[in-house]
Amino acid sequence: MEPQALAALIAERVLAQLSSHGVEDLPAEVDVALERPRSADHGDWATSVALKVAKHAGVPPRDFAAALATDIGSLPGVAVADVAGPGFINITLEAGAAGELVATILELGEHYGQSTALAGETINVEFVSANPTGPLHIGHTRWAALGDCLVRVLRSAGADVTSEFYVNDAGAQMDTFGESILASILGEAPPEGGYQGSYIADLAARVLEQDPELVGESRAEQIARARDTGYRLQLADIKQSLTDFGVEFGVWFSERTLHENEATGTSLIDSSLERLRAGGHVFEEDDAVWVRTTDFGDDKDRVIRRANGVYTYFAADAAYYLSKTDRGFEKKIYLLGADHHGYIHRLKALAGAAGEDPEKNIEILIGQLVSINGAKLSKRAGNIIELDDLREWLGVDALRYSLARYPADSPLSLDPEILTKRSNDNPVFYVQYAHARTHQVARNAEASGVATDTFDPSLLTEPTEAALISSLADFPRVVTQAANLREPHRVARYLEDVAALFHRWYDHARVTPQGDDPIEPVHHTRLSLNNATGQVLRNGLALLGVSAPERM
RNA sequence: GCCCUCGUAGCUCAGCGGAUAGAGCAGAAGACUUCUAAUCUUUUGGCCGCAGGUUCGAUUCCUGCCGAGGGCGCCA
Predict the structure, then answer these.
(1) For residue A262, what are the contacts with CB-CB under 8 A and spacing of at least 6?
(2) Lesser CB count within 10 Å: N end or C end of chain A?
């Protein structure tokens, strides 16, 4: 039996108990959270619903729990339901009822774990959004991994998700970028505050190769062409780095398009300002134009157009936000580094000024930065560590996994020595090895004549089997929770748990009989459990963008 | 000064308001003529930064303090 089905049955019993205690205003539905208990002595599933609901019935939690446990104990498929502690109910399923799940998993295949929890939501997830003036570095790496995993998890929960990269290709830094490349081409000293690192020289050589006529042009033309060609090359490099890292974006949004005039002679920024003005949140002071973001909790109002008539970066932010709304995204998720946390209030205020709900339509996930022990700094990019170097050093799987297994707000320092190890202390190998092992077991089993066509879940009576099965049953709940909380790391932690339970089971129960022992129905049945475990590990790794090798 | 995040075992870190706070590593002791030991079994190790508050119940929520990191612009 699947936990969702059991939870629904229990919810009915809770309502019945409540009404038998004379509770008038029964809740429309009771959320029975079935949890996997920490201790195996506590059965397959536990619920604290009695503790939460007893107050409404006006009876002591333990009494309520006792009556409810009796009801649950008589449900089909339930072997035992006990009251423990202050009013927990521990439930043990009959082996056959629990094991039916194995067939369900094999039937659903790669769809097992998907849900409709977020069906109907249109979500825009923006992340990385690096300036196209240099290679991606370690500061972008965590968001690339985490954002991509979040997108996968949200989709798995049924949301309609678009991943988006905001290209900061407008503003003074692009000219500085062009000047830096040009200086390198002409053999001049780099401009003050210009871009450093040998990647500039690389770009300069490539720009010159594509545009050899450039040297004869006027200075202004030279800068413009160095800038535009360099931009095109650098953006292509960034896309390649992300593709190599397994990260795909649905939309590359150019900031320039917000500034450019449309046929009407106004830009998106112009019209956005008018829309904010129409909402009544714009005022003028000291010759500048301001948005009254303090109406929505910002600590100060923000200038949107300077006294000299030039728009601020905030103006582009506003136009970009409205663009997302206009493109049909009900929910906008931003992934930002801790160094951008000062933007939370003003971005939320922006949503409010645009007439939306800052609590609902915009979410900003702030993450702590990553450090790497003993990482070599990149000569190519100056004083930073490049994503490409990290990927080549540690591999896509180890890098993605180790970045995705921690919550975003947890400060993180990676240890390359561990990440390149092939052993238990490297979680990605631990999980991948478990997956490879399920394939090895299946290969051996099939070679010895063990097959999945005989399946009798009531034979799965080993304690390690019960634990493995209930952990497999937990997968859909974990994915849904990861999506709801925007915390993909839960998937990684879950996989480590499944891998551990699988290795333990492998050690205690054989799929292929040893030596000349005969093949029995239990062996056939265990092959299905083995295969179902492989399926769950594969599905989970796919959510993290990590490969699931069949052999290691 | 104001704002944000973090503080859990020796280390790296989990922990949707619930049970005796967990995992891996490190330390100690075991299991390989193996369905791949890249694994498993047993075990040592905690004033959950400190002090209050809310709650039947707080590592979790709130307030203050201490400590670490980051941020404050008519820059982008």
Answers:
(1) A268
(2) C
Instruction: Give per-residue pLDDT as tens, A249-273.
Output: 999 999 999 998 877 788 999 999 9
User: How many Å does it take to go from CA A496 to C1' B24?
Assistant: 10
Cα distance between residue A331 and residue A328, in whole Å: 9
Beta carbons within 10 angstroms of residue A254's beta carbon = 17
Arithmetic mean of pLDDT over chain A: 91
Give A479-507 pLDDT, tens digit per residue. 999 999 999 999 999 999 999 999 999 99
A315 touches strand B (CB under 7 A): no
Nucleotides of B under 7 A from a protein CB: 2-7, 12-16, 18-26, 35-41, 56, 69-76
Angle A414-A417-A419 (CA atoms, 0-180°, nearest 5)? 60
**Per-residue model confidence (pLDDT) at position A372:** 76
Give the pLDDT confidence of A200-258 residue by residue, as tens digits.
Answer: 999 999 999 999 999 999 999 999 999 999 999 999 999 999 999 999 999 999 999 99
* B20 closest protein residue (CA to C1'): A39
Q: Closest by alpha carbon to A532, among A449, A456, A481, A473? A: A473
> A16-42: b or e for each residue (b if 16 or more CB lie within 10 Å)?
ebbeeeeeeeeeeebebebebbeeeeb
Q: Is A74 within 7 A of strand B by CB distance?
A: no
Q: Is A131 a residue whose pLDDT tops 70? A: yes
pLDDT at A312: 93
Whether any strand B atom is under 7 angstroms from the Cβ of A378: the reply reads no
From the C1' of B38, which residue's alpha carbon is nearest?
Answer: A423
Q: How many residues does chain A have?
A: 552
- % of chain A at pLDDT higher than 90: 68
Structural domains in chain A?
3-93 (3.30.1360.70), 172-244 (no CATH), 422-544 (1.10.730.10)
Spanning CA of A4 to C1' of B57, the rounded length in angstroms is 27
* Nucleotide nearest A430, from its CA to each C1': B38
- Chain A 426-465 residues whose Cβ is under 7 Å from strand B: 427, 429-430, 433, 436-437, 439-441, 444-445
